Fold each of these.
Amino acid sequence: MEFIILVVTSFKTLLDPLVLTYVIAGFIIGTVFSAIPGLTATLALALLLPLTYSLDVTTALMACASIYMAGMCGGSITATTINIPGAPSSMMTALDGYPMQQQGKGALALGHAAIGSMVGGALGAMLLIGLAPFIAEASLLVQTTGKFSLLAFAVIVIVIAQRGKMIKAAMAACIGLMLATIGLDAMEPVTRFTFGFSDLTAGIDLMPVIIGTFAISEILIQVGAKKEARQTTEAMSKVKIRRRDFIPPLADIRKIGVVCYVKSSLIGYFVGTLPGAGGSMGSFLAYVETVRTSSNPDSYGKGNPKGIAASESANNAVCGGALVPMLTFGIPGDPITAIMLGVLVINGIQPGPQLMAGQADLIAPVLASLLFSAVILIPLTLFLLGPYFIKIVAIRKDVLYGSIALLAVVGSYVATYSTFQMMMALALGVLAYYMRKNDFPIITMLLGFILGPNLEEFLRRSLALSNGNPMTFFTSLDSLFFVVLTLVFVYFLAIKKPLKQPASKAQSSEEVI
């Protein structure tokens, strides 16, 4: 209770004009970087890290927190407008956001994304403030075998969630897992699958994979749709977007339901407390859970705002969850919290169980900044800049996608400073293009690549600790929990046949808003 009071009183720090300037500037920078494919909030933090030397640690961390929150919600902008997620955590948002854009409801889709981000970010921050000590202890209960079972659960659910094309989804996931094995072995200092290319010794970097599968492949697809692109440009250039168009009607929000927002936020938060999980896993699990419990699952992927709300609520709630292991045990949950950990270490502050108690006056303003970014800056930024975001599609497609191609290629080079990795982004873009043309879900490939390294590492560690006995995954309680959860999802998503109901009844219970 004392810590909560300290966080509340820390809001007065935001009244300092200089601190407020840094927080708002950080949020805008994070939004812009996460909205541009190839430039992420992680890159923004990395580029701005030298500036933290000239700031006091509290101000620097508050700015980092606002960039973090902006990075999660900003990716939904291009995910909705041009079907290129600006961040991995916005992949699921694109599934329903872009169809709404094609239906002329792009502003409304961004409004739903902003509300979901605001609710998820606020709930995540409040849970962090109130439950951090307890969640930190609970996350320690998930040991090596449990972490493998969690990741295996994610991969399996990724595949079975692709209704009607599970075989193609499984093949795409396998491609992603195979790409993740290239480079140094996870446990031994030997290279594998490099085929004589020394540039592959370190493996394929995540950034070229993201840029290739989304940005490059989308550009190639748009090249083959010049007529449609020209018509879209002409139509959008005549559309007058008003700021009030970004405010979803109250009736729409009621159809989504408080339960969807809260449940998705809780999923995102608790996924965030597990190191390495990240916003992409949180948003995916929340999206799948929303589809699973829906009375009209076929409406998802076709412009259902509930899918947007679930995805954005979860990935922004991850922000609060990911800070738990970083602050209490010095274990970063994702690349951004790793950089924030660096800010602490640079200033001689060692995260640990005693940080909350011994230096609460330092951490409280950071959590206040996270909550402020969610509640104030997310809706404020959308209201002020929303019409400019939506007008991205009114730009001539040759100029827009030419600029995106340039930024994507430069971004893949800046992220790795490797010409070879930049060429890998182009090669993977061509691969993803042909996969998309043949109806392979590239999301499963990307998530397979992201989860692959940890999946292999925890599998081999678990077997090493049990002398090769696979029963360890069924005798450890944390692992058994995720095994049972996997079976539950397999039953409901792949085995159990949905009850057939009249179309009118299904639509009346849950319409596509």
Amino acid sequence: MKDLYGKALLLDSALTKSTGFTREERERYGLRGLIPYDVASINKQIERVLGSMRCKGTAIEKYIFLNALLERNQRLFYRTMIDHIEEIMPLVYTPTVGEACKEFAHIFRRPQGFYITPEDRGEIATILRNWPEEDIRVIVVTDGERILGLGDLGANGMGISIGKVALYVACAGINPAQCMPVMLDVGTNNVSLREDPLYLGYPYPRISGDVYRSLVDEFVKAVQLRFPYALIQFEDFLTPHAFEFLDRYSGEVRCFNDDIQGTAAVTLAGIYTSCRITRKRFSDLNIMFLGTGSAAGGIAELMVDAFCAEGLSKSQAQQRLWFIDRKGLVTSSNDNIKPRIKPFAHEHVARSFVDAIGDIKPDVLIGATGVAGTFDENIVRKMAAVNERPVIIALSNPTSHTECTAEQAYQWSDGRVIFASGSPFDAVQYNDRLFKSAQGNNAYIFPGIGLGIYASAARVVTQSMFLAAAQVLADIVTEQEIDTGAIYPALTRVRKVSHAIAVAVCGVVIHEGLTDANLPDDLDSYIRSLMYEPDY
């Protein structure tokens, strides 16, 4: 332990055991009289935490309770989350984190991350030294402009960075002392936030153009100086900026964009798994996207790589992918096609959404719109009409923004759909069968990628790492899980998934010569030795 004693030790969130200190420790660290008599095991403390949490009436109240626990006792928070991941993750991250971000300034208790504003220009490298930890390996950064499907939430977007850090720790065992949530608070164009007297952020309109880009550039360069081994995860940036920064930095520094690459890998994994059910060859699939944002564009680009790995040419791969926007099918005759979508704008008669499904007969329909209800009954029934087992993946979150619910998908497809979603849904009873669709959660991918980068000290992050991660995730799904309607493994196995992905990432790093480190032959044991276990 650090040189802390008495009350200071009890109040240190990383070191405290609260009532878990042994008799000997109470004597050694001056704790006698400061805590009740009982020496409570961490399991007994978890029982108390769960009892208190479950008494809360709403998800946001549970979020506040859990956040307070994290501020008070780090190890107890993470042990509780790991041991009860299916119950805790939806409270710590999606869907509850969306509401938490909207209310962030109103429920704020204690600062947990690092804030950078335009007033810090020219001094970012200097102020980064205020962060108390030296060996940072993972940074999650957002500018709050496109939080989930909720839009511009300004500095309230810090809730996203904090939540993603929690997933790195719980799902992949990155030590919390090596993780850093960052908010690039560059203002907000959400007038209601700026006028809120409790708003905590930079209370001005967003900076933009070269002024904005130069601040991001200064931040990235400052990280290289202060934390040279850190991986930067870009999170919830507006689509043009998301792709721009990924293209700008990915060949130079350790970075990736989870909305683009993490979403792509988890979606690809689900499609790989679905082929075990439909008995279709992956290379034969036609895939349709509703939405043309960063998530859909990122998925399409990784799909092209996946198709090419199966022997298709790039042109053939692109021909398998189709896009729908609010006007209908995106074709080569459309105006104002986004640059990343142009390769998928094929020659075809302009058609409505439902008619395009009839024409193209997609095997897989992917929603990445942020707009609730866009997979209506007509769409789902049309997919079921052209497929014996239609694959529908409704990625948008939080739950209020999903393209369709699990119950709707099963009802409208007469129980034939292979369904996954970005938000969690309860099991659905249809006729005599209980379906337990899985959440296509990026937590299956990005923590393992981060662990692999940390373990290998890779200089950059490549698309091939996400291809490898998708294959690992698909391969780990059991036949028993598939029988319940799931195309992803149970969340209870997410640390096993992250470990396996990290091993695969290290394999890619070695194969592509992306590290100067001498990695051991036994990658399995080496990576396991790096994983943080929150115990007393």
Amino acid sequence: MQFENRSFDYLIIGGGTAGLAVAARLSEDPRVQVGVIEAGPSALNGEDGGDITVPGRYGEAINSKYDWKFETISQPGLAGRSLPMPRGRVLGGTSALNFMAWNRAHRDDYDAWADLGNAGWGWDDLLCVIKIKYEIATDIAAHQKDYKSSYQAEFNGTKGPVQTTHTKEYGPTHQYWHDTMNALNIPSSEDSLAGANYGTWNMVCSIDPSQQTRSYAASAYYAPIAYRGNLHVFPNTTVLKVLLEKGDSGLRATGASVCHDQHIWELKARREVILSAGTIQSPQILEISGIGARGVLEAAGIEVKLENKNVGENLQDHMMFASIYEVLPKLSSRDDIIGNPTLRAAADHAYQTSQTGPWTVLPCSVAYCSVSDITSEKERCGLISFSKSLEHQLGDDSVNTKLRQHVERTLLPTPQGRIEYIFDLGNWCPFFESDPDKKYATMLQVLQYPLSQGFVHIRARLDEADLVSAEEMPILDPKYYLGMGLFDKKIMALARKFADKICQTEPLAGIIKGRVFPPLRDDSNTEDSLSDLGTVQNDEAEKNEQLDDGLMEKYTITDWHPIGTCAMGGSGGARDGVVDERLRVYGVHGLRVIDASIMPLQIGAHPQATVYAIAEKGAAMIIEDWKST
């Protein structure tokens, strides 16, 4: 692999979900040279052994050589626990590790970005670029009849590289999902991709329907154009820093210092450096390059080249809780296959010979509910009372205004999905140990618009001999359930109760024997397990509230959807963000950030489709800007 004296028009740092999409679009012009730096290996051509490419084996690449294996620091709001935060260290990035969920946020989510002063980022602006190719199931009419799948042609594209589909086969409990949620007045959505993240639907997945394989950035954007002579991808190569030079016109990015096979090289960029390293590492690379908050940089022994206090701040993530239910023993799940060599061999054979069987099944029973759907009037009044006491506790006028506005929006009886529910057979909970003689199902609940907000920063240098690099684990602190995030905890506690209500509603209730996690309060054996969750109060309601809070603290996990650490600043510019609406880093010529970190506000959706849209729009803006010069 030749690095010496290499120069490109565009140098992209990060060959992940966004980076490869940007590379594909920029390299369409044969007159420009495009370089891509990726810290991980390629998993194309079968190198992954199926861990990545086989849909039903989702999760097997997590905590493998394809994962950065990040962890948060200890979280006071989670009873002192730290949480794993998997991120893809492989060509294709986290699109190679995720669970292939493909949906879009509510149109209001994108319009909120534009309302902050980020022109061109509203729903109508993005629709033309978020219509990545949508391959509907072989017989959509039959699929709609059998599974109540939905599809509206005007909201789905036909020309993009990413293949998406309703899965060919569904698990045995899906047949009950729509009727159960409809019985709870959660309607079935006409199309989950049409700009309303509300209702009950079947999750569309990023799968190539012809091959029944994962469709991800490496297979969709890179593999078909790998032959291009002007596209140069360097796997197993770590970026040390962005090269910055100060001239008459100010600070300019001129390339990057990289490490490959223990050798350090400098790669030059004639036009631009594009940072697509993701929410955790894009701010980290800016900081080790000298762009960030003065205190952070000086503590790490980094020369301050451009001060911006927003780098690494504004970290927002979806929080998740898993409730486990025992189900009828006749139901078979993925857990049975993983634990049984005979069943696994049969699943492998079905997949390899006919692209059928359990390895084509993904969790697709989904519902996005408003808070008014899942709470009583009394509970909503309790939320208002709690928010007022929280305002008094926080005592900051600007923070309290934000909290008050959030509470008002949250409690409006509008069709906007603030809690996502996903139901699937098997035990998805890291805190519950299955009994091999019993069968289980999991109800996941995911908070879509959290108030909890944290940061990602490089670590302080312990002594002068310490080196700071992108290989080092950063300080990852989402601050779950702290500050305004205390309101998040109340919403999640109420959402857990509604999970029980779903599982007690027919026809789903007909296959459920009872909840086994979290343990029932009236069980004789739960006193010890719950005694440390909160101080016992004489008042039963207050006691229950303490217990609910304690359960959230002990068992909330993340849905691995971090965003926002290099956010668009909008009308506030560098005072409020890191990049402008054209994704250019404030104060630096020739440097952009294009990935999930530029989102100023969290969205009500799994972020994959939106990250591709950011990449497509970012690449188009780069091309436009250079055409105008």
Amino acid sequence: MRYNHPIYNSPKRYWAIGVGAIASFSVQAMDANSVLPEELFFSDVPVVLSATRLKQPLPDSPASVTVIDRTMIEASGAIELADLLRLVPGFQVGYYTGSKFTVSSHGNADRFARDMQVLIDGRSIYDPAFGGVTWSDQELDIDDIQRIEVIRGPNAATHGSNSFAGVINIITQHPSEQPDIRVKTVFGDGGKKQVFNRFSGTEGNLAYRISLKYDENNGFDNRHDDSDTRWFGIRGDYQLNSRDALLMELGSSNGTREDGFPADAEQPFRATEDDHAFQQLRWTRSLAPGNEFSLQFYHNYQRVDDSFSDPNTFAPLDVSLGYGFKSQRYDVEFQHSYDFSPAQRLVWGLGARRDEAKGVWTFKHGDWMSRDQYRAFGNFEWRLHNNLLLNLGGMYEKFDQKDGLFSPMVALNLKLDEMNTLRLRGTSAYRMPTFWEDFSDQSVVLTGAMTPLLQVYKTNVNLLPEYIESFELGYLGNFQETGLTLDMKLFHEEIKDMIAEVKDLAAPGQPFTYINSGSLNINGFEIGLRWDPSPRSMLHVGYSLTNTYGDQIKKYPPTLPEHYRMLDRRVPPLTVSILGSHQFDNGIKLSSAYYYMDDISWAGDGDDVDINRRWDIKISKAFELQRAEGEVSLIFQNIGPDNHFQDFHTENVWGDRIFLEASLNWH
């Protein structure tokens, strides 16, 4: 049940608290100018790449950025990659099944989370057919991640359409920094069995990594959602000479995913076969200090084999339905960064992309449908004064059969001193419809003959992209004398031309279709806190408070009040994450994470789920052998007296789980 927080019913009080908190820290920072110790000005400041494609210290970033580094990754006790993103203020993670995850910022998502851009080493893993990311199919293990940079807010000016709610940029470790051989195994409750092997090395100017993994689990205790996944990945970094470097990556995965519900004609018990593959090549040349360009090409491929017959619902007819499809993306991009002076820097680039999809079940297309995109982007950083930094950015994109889109961004960063920064930012972004939204054509058919009997989905209009405007006032304090970093953000977002799934009352059989309908306003206040009181201790806190309102059409054409859906429950009013860790003198590491999310109404085929609370603990101990080193960890997930909650579906009920993780490294 949703709490009736007074702040939700008082927008003036709500904004006053956010502005007051930021103003309070800003005034304290200005008052402290004269007493800052000199050594603080020479301390290391985290550098991020994702906000503008320029390497920028966090105080210079024109966007709110959360960095999940190796310390946080290891302390989290996360088994699934998606669970790491629970640490980001304002983010929600939902489990559609035990192996299918959705990750959203400020809610308003179904199991595909179409508004989030996700990159791995500069390669977008967004699926153009249905949208979102198939997290379990990615050829990536948590152990290979160096850090994750998360842009909290629209960033299409830098990363284009679908960077609508935010950007998740996953940066992996360089092979030369990794042990020669690593073996890791995880097993525990829920039928979890995982084996990961990695081989890294160098041969002359070539550094390489070969990874293999097998992963299986039984999903939720009360669901038909077992899964298994096998994958391999290869990365090579070749230094051609002092100026030129090549990055080469490829990978492939396949697995079986169980899905469905008892006595559900549209989602019955069944098993799907999923295949995934990618190839990536990037050439980087350094022309001079501050003058560098890169040329990158990648290809992603995905196949989902998902169809089933039903001899009962339309008896005596034997009918079939399916959700299977294939999709792929080809992308080439040129990028050039140039420093005009210490006060002025520019990054710009050009790119082209072809997205393709096909599916006899979902599109009635046995041949590839294609959509081409061309883009030009740039970001100009101009230090107007020692304490004032201007960032101007934008991207122009042209898609087939759509009008051209321009996504601008402007931000001013005012440094109160070297450790305290105020940021004012405005931007807009677009979300391009997926192939499914634009071209869905799904029917119940006669088994074998494929003769359509009942239309289930059919899109009949040329959809407009969704559009968002975002404004934020941010504060970043870096109190290095105490090891504390504080990031606060007050924001307003308005989404227009929303793509709505509606029941078409005017069509025979009343199929579902997609139209542009509705708007959503989100006002919010976020806090990210990181405290490192010593090299062996760490505390991270994420906090998000939102007020949301909006509506859209649910049944078309609307004639009654119940033909509209209210959107205020699409975003949980309050989300909290707390992660702490400490290493004792005897070498034992203890960490604990707590997550809280208010009740939420997941879109699409999700459900209304109640408040979620989750408490995890990880205990680990490192050890050394004659020729190797290792670590053993005991991981407790969702423990405590109030440890049963629903996740995405009311049928998805979490209980407590225990895992044993062991690893060995040979150098």
